[in-house]
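Exercise 7b. Backbone tokens:
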């Protein structure tokens, strides 16, 4: 097993050169051995637009055939579209994607017949790893049309045909697998769509890293095309990006909160990194907090659905929305889809703003959301991050000394990395990324200026320790 390959917050990730070939076949074979009997004998495959993805799909298909099963290639499509199709047909699936991480990396997201795998499944897959499965060519069924159509039908009609009439929306296409679908859905809802920044080579877009140079053209796009909003997703279409007509990023947790209200959620499940205003807004009967990662949100949704009636909606701080129960919108029934989806929150929030006659910026300003920012230090070895985070929690006096330039530590939560509450009411939260060698910093401030000050300080102070 290559050293760079490991399970993170969402699937197996590592360098593409380590995953291509024998490793992809080994993990696919281990996944199939772990789940046992496959009803219908078919395993569904999808991929993003990374250069390494087609070869890895071929490796996965070889392992599927070696297990006596039929690989079904659903082509280039969003991760939630593949999951929706596989769950509807009662079969397992594997999505070849590295999501938002750099182009030299890739990964595998595994789905059993009921949906996304659990952390226990990850342990089971690792335990089932055996010798390399031989490479080989053979038949592959084409499932691309059926899988794409199922996803389109899910959201077709979610908004009325004239719901976004008068709106001009830019779609930042880059190399997102959802780019054409987004443009289609928005056009059907009456929006005037402007397509921007399409790339034929893979671009790593992190929808939470607002300072990335990739987003600098947004102001010129908005001015040139008189846009009311700019929308996009990460590489595999499970994390949304929404920018208002003033060029401001709408945080993912704000998207999730608005989308959950649009869906009539009675109970919300979201990680500790989501904004603290979610509890205070008063829209939901209960809010449950989890560790970062869709498996933890899914587990929380399962507990919520079992514990009380009503609509259960989960979302991550990146805005990816998960449905833990059936919901009905505009007479359309949306079945549960317990995996992150980027299209639904984008449509829900734009539809909400248009219905209320608000600009997107105006809608967000009506919310009692605390100023929050996040960013990351790239290329930080995991052992360096671990030593820093452990020291902050366990080394006597270290946190007090470390935070002295910005305030007095009042309390700390360790649900997923240390989250420090300061006497001023501000918070600073550090955690190591589960998908890449990165250290992430999340802050909430009593004012936008304070949040910016805290984030700048938090990144610089951590960098001085880990680099």
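Sequence design result:
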């Amino acid at each position: 097993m290559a050293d760079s390959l490991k399970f993170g917050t969402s699937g197996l990730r590592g360098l593409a050169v380590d995953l291509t070939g024998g490793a992809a076949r080994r993990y696919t074979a281990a996944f199939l051995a772990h789940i046992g009997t496959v009803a219908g004998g078919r395993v569904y495959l999808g991929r993003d637009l990374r250069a390494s993805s087609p070869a890895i799909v071929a490796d996965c298909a070889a392992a599927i055939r070696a297990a006596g099963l039929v690989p079904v290639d659903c082509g280039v499509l969003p991760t939630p579209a593949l999951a929706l199709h596989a769950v509807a047909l009662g079969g397992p699936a594997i999505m070849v994607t590295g999501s938002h991480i750099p182009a030299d990396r890739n990964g595998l997201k595994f789905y059993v017949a009921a949906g996304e795998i659990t952390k226990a499944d990850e342990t089971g897959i690792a335990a089932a790893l055996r010798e390399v499965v031989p490479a080989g060519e053979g038949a592959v069924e084409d499932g691309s049309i059926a899988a794409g159509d199922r996803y389109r039908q899910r959201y077709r009609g979610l908004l009325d045909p004239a719901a976004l009439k008068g709106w001009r929306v830019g779609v930042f296409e880059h190399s997102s697998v959802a780019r054409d679908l987004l443009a289609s859905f928005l056009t059907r809802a009456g929006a005037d769509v402007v397509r921007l920044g399409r790339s034929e080579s893979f671009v790593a877009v992190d929808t939470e890293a607002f300072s990335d140079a990739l987003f600098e053209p947004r102001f010129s796009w908005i001015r040139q095309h008189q846009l009311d909003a700019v929308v996009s997703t990460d590489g595999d279409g499970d994390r949304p990006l929404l920018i208002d007509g003033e060029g401001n990023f709408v945080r993912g947790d704000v998207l999730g909160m608005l989308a959950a209200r649009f869906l009539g959620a009675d109970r919300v499940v979201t990680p500790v990194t989501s904004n603290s205003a979610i509890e205070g807004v008063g829209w939901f009967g209960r809010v449950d907090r989890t560790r970062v990662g869709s498996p933890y949100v899914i587990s929380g949704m399962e507990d919520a659905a079992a514990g009380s009636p009503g609509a259960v909606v989960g979302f991550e701080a990146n805005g990816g929305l998960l449905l833990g129960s059936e919901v009905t919108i505009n007479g359309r029934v949306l079945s549960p889809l317990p995996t992150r989806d980027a299209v639904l929150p984008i449509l829900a929030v734009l539809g909400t703003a248009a219905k209320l006659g608000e600009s997107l910026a105006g809608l967000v300003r009506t919310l009692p959301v605390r100023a929050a920012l996040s960013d990351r230090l790239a290329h930080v070895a995991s052992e360096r991050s671990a030593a820093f985070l452990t020291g902050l929690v366990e080394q006597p006096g270290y946190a007090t000394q470390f935070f002295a330039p910005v305030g007095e530590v009042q309390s700390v939560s360790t649900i997923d990395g240390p989250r420090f509450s300061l006497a001023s009411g501000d918070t600073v939260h550090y955690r190591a990324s589960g998908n890449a060698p990165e250290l992430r910093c999340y802050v909430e401030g009593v004012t936008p200026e304070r949040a910016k000050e805290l984030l700048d300080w938090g990144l610089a102070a951590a960098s001085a320790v880990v680099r």
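Instructor comment: The chain is about 35% helix and 25% strand. The longest strand covers residues 105-112.
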